[in-house]
Specification:
single chain, about 475 residues, alpha/beta, 12-stranded mixed sheet, 5-stranded parallel sheet, about 15% strand, elongated, LRR_dom_sf, leucine-rich repeat, PRAME, LRRC14/PRAME
């Protein structure tokens, strides 16, 4: 039979303060630091706006991680917090008790609240209680701008009530508030509203941008100047950009867009989904890169041989860890271009994705020597290409010594299909057995996935429903 731990006097006092707003406001100057987080959390969830305002003005921590507590349909407690901040912002000097300099509206801080929720029973000092701070007094330290952190995900055509209220509040206090956003995701929103949001944000705080909606080139060009001011941007992901017949105006748009990369001095990850505007113009973007990239993804678009030549010669890709060219048609390309590219990144490359590139047997055999130098590979995919069993065996043998390689994705061998491209009944299990024999002969644990293209069941471009071919020491008999 368990015995409930009796509540401490401090816990009971905190509960009493929530019921007596007037008493709470006057008692906060003597409230132990350990009681602030659990009492604040209770006040926020219970919408005790009066005590919330008082607690914000006496908050004894630098950061208030509010995002994990916000219930968006009920913005009343948030409004109370912002109104309390208004009182702090108009003060010429800051109080010694209040140390609040960061309001964090991101969905973070759960560890902070959970840690302090047990403070009253588990985080006591040797005397059995937290030290009581000295009475509130004034220091001559001037108030610096308050930082408000938020992750922006612009999913709707109109701004929601929460964001509208916050932006209006920030706009009226621009000299004393820095609205900081590290992650910006744009799913669906008119450019006018996007501009309205970004005009309120400290753009040099943004580290990740993902544009998941389809824009035309002129829309991207409108967004480009904002992108150029994101001087600490580390990751950029752009989804399909629609381009009509290339004209002088669109050439100007490309220049406007690619020139912004000159200002992105911390860019490490670049993902471009269907960037058709770069066909024949990839060199314009590559020339503007100022950093060495870790990850590069250019997918589902047409590139020219000139584009691939410039890519293989670009000094900013020499330390790539991940290269993805899925859906870039390489059927008629000189394989030497891809060979030079792989040789350039061989020392550092960990992930290589060449799905649905139209690579033929002869081309793949030509790049095998360069591929065999990529000894750091962890993940490798050739799904959707048409390769023979003989070429696949060469690939497996060339990479047998790759100790880091853990994910291998290959197309079902060419021999699995009829001349009309129909999957032959019973043929694939035979080829799977042959591949397992090859793995057994190589004598190293290995897992290989085979894929169909297109999927005979659901019609997807690539089918990944098959069980992998697994060789381990235990099945070597």
């Amino acid at each position: 039979m368990s015995v409930r731990t009796p509540r401490r006097l401090l816990d009971l006092a905190g509960m009493h303060l929530l019921r007596e707003d007037d008493l709470a406001s006057s008692a906060l100057g003597q409230l132990p630091v350990e009681l602030f987080p659990p009492l604040f959390k209770e006040a926020f969830s219970g919408r005790h706006t009066k005590i919330l305002k008082a607690m914000v003005q006496a908050w004894p921590f630098v950061r208030l991680p509010l995002g994990g507590l916000i219930d968006l349909p009920h913005v009343g407690p948030l409004q109370a917090v912002l109104e309390a901040l208004d009182v702090l912002l108009v003060q010429k000097v800051c109080s010694r008790r209040c140390k609040l300099r960061v309001l964090d509206l991101r969905d973070t801080g759960h560890n902070f609240w959970s840690m302090w929720s047990g403070a009253s029973t588990h985080r006591c000092t040797g005397s059995g209680r937290a030290p009581v701070p000295k009475p509130r007094s004034v220091t001559k330290q001037h108030v610096a701008p308050l930082k408000v952190f938020i992750d922006l995900s612009l999913k709707k055509r109109t701004l929601d009530n929460f964001l509208t209220y916050l932006l209006r509040w920030v706009e009226q206090r621009k000299s004393s508030i820095h609205l900081c956003c590290k992650k910006l995701k744009i799913v669906s929103m008119p450019m006018d509203n996007i501009v309205k949001v970004l005009s309120m944000v400290q753009l040099d705080c943004i580290q990740e941008v993902q544009v998941s909606c389809t824009w035309n080139l002129s829309t991207l060009a409108t967004f480009a100047p904002f992108l150029g001011h994101m001087s600490n941007l580390q990751r950029l992901r752009l989804f399909p950009i629609q381009v009509s017949a290339f004209k002088k105006q669109e050439h100007d748009h490309v220049v406007q867009i690619t020139s912004q990369f000159l200002r992105l001095g911390h860019l490490r990850d670049l993902h471009l989904e269907s960037p058709s505007f770069l066909e024949g113009h990839l060199d314009q973007m590559l020339r503007c890169l100022t950093t060495t990239l870790d990850n590069l993804s250019i997918t589902n678009c047409q590139l020219t041989e000139s584009d691939l030549t410039h890519l293989s010669q670009c000094p900013n890709i020499c330390q790539l860890k991940s290269l993805e060219l899925n859906g870039v048609t390489l059927t008629d390309f000189n394989p030497e271009l891809l060979q030079v590219l792989l040789e350039k990144v061989a020392a550092t490359l960990q992930e290589l994705y060449l799905d649905q590139c139209g690579i033929k047997n002869s081309q793949f055999e030509a790049i095998l020597p360069a591929l065999s130098r990529c000894s750091q590979l962890r993940s490798f995919s050739l799904c959707g290409n048409l390769l023979s069993m003989a070429v696949m065996e060469k690939m497996l043998r060339q990479t047998a010594g790759f100790s880091c390689l853990s994910q291998e994705w290959y197309p079902a061998p060419q021999e699995s299909y009829s001349p009309q491209g129909v999957l032959l009944d019973g043929r694939l299990p035979q080829l799977q057995a042959e591949l397992l024999e090859i793995l057994r002969d190589l004598g190293q644990p290995r897992t290989v996935w085979l894929t169909f293209s297109p999927c005979p069941h659901c019609g997807d471009d690539i089918c990944t429903h098959m069980e992998p071919i697994i060789y381990s020491c235990s099945n070597s008999a």
